[in-house]
Amino acid sequence: MMAVAILAGWLTSWLSPWNAALAATGLTLPFFIWRIRRWHAPVRALLRALAGAVTAYRDGDYSFGIRWAGRGELADLVDAHNRLGDALREQRNALVQRELLLDTMVHNTPVAMILVDPARRVVHANLAARKMLGDGHQLEGHAFEDLVALAPDAMRETLDRGGDGMFTVGDEDNEDIYHLSRRQFRLNGRRHELVMLRLLTAELRRQEVQTWKKVIRVISHELNNSLAPIASLAHSGSELLRRGQLERLPNALATIEERARHLEGFIRDYARFAKLPAPRTQPVRWSRFVSQLRDQVEFVAEGVPDNGHARFDAAQLEQCLLNLLKNAHESGSPPQDVKLSLRRLPDGWRIDVLDRGNGMNEAVLANALLPFYSTKRNGTGLGLALAREIAEAHGGRIALLNREGGGLCVSMVLPDAE
Predict the structure, then answer these.
(1) What is the pLDDT of residues 141-170, one digit of tens each?
(2) Residue 386 and residue 354: Cα distance in Å, rounded?
(3) Which of helix, strand or coil describes residue 401?
């Protein structure tokens, strides 16, 4: 027993320093943890503020700002965050202003604009559209087809045909001319359609007046250039007859005939341009068509397929290309450099009439396709305009461009007829 008591006393004396250390640690650790938590509390608050600001930015709220009294990397992070918030706020304000401006322009433009969703319901309609289709009432939420059913017959027929077009509403004494355009696009991953109706009456009236003035000037000029010498030579011919100077009479009569035939040709060309009928398209073999052209005017043919076919009005296209080929010869080009090039496109044909003449300056290129515009002394200004009318009547287009090395290229594209 004595030995056990002695061993226990020795162990107690040996462990007493450890007990003191553990007791001291038990008192210091909670205090240390409390100090750490107190020191980290502002940092945790800052991190929570940053997380809340990021959430606000995601929701479109850029009014948040964060303050931090400390220094170092955290201060730099807070400053960068505040600068980002200021930049986003300025961009948002600028975007809001642009949206307000765009909304004001769309609502107050004279062009009627209607946005239709995939379910064929009106998503947005400006003031002009409301006046045209809804008697001033809102159209949003209405079925577009219901609005079309209440529209004037001409508008409804144009909308039913699809694509762009023009139509007239009213009678002869009080009619309005509109242009319809339709555009498809994707909004938020869904296909929408934008329908635009533009009133063209006033603009077309102004253009019509200007065109008539130009027509009158051109016709007056041509008539005076022909009738004045005819009247003068007729008087001279009667004087020659009275005096018995018959040897000079044939020259006077020849000049009268030449001026009369020129006037006849001008009137014929004008009538052809003014009364161009709708094309009667039918399958035409290119090799045969080009061969018939070469019987009437000289040119070099390129790219003509042996068995290629296309659908077009042969008489109209022949008249069109004859005008273009004759213009090429009159440009001063050597005859061997007048060419007709034919090329197949994915959805149609391209016809190029090429020459090595003097080409055209920018002013002439910009106006050459307009009716009655001509740089020739005796030109009527109807040849290129008629070619343009024929191309567009076939659903195609025509363009002029100068060639490298001199000369002109008149390019016509004819789409495949359905």
Answers:
(1) 999 988 888 888 888 888 887 778 778 887
(2) 18
(3) strand
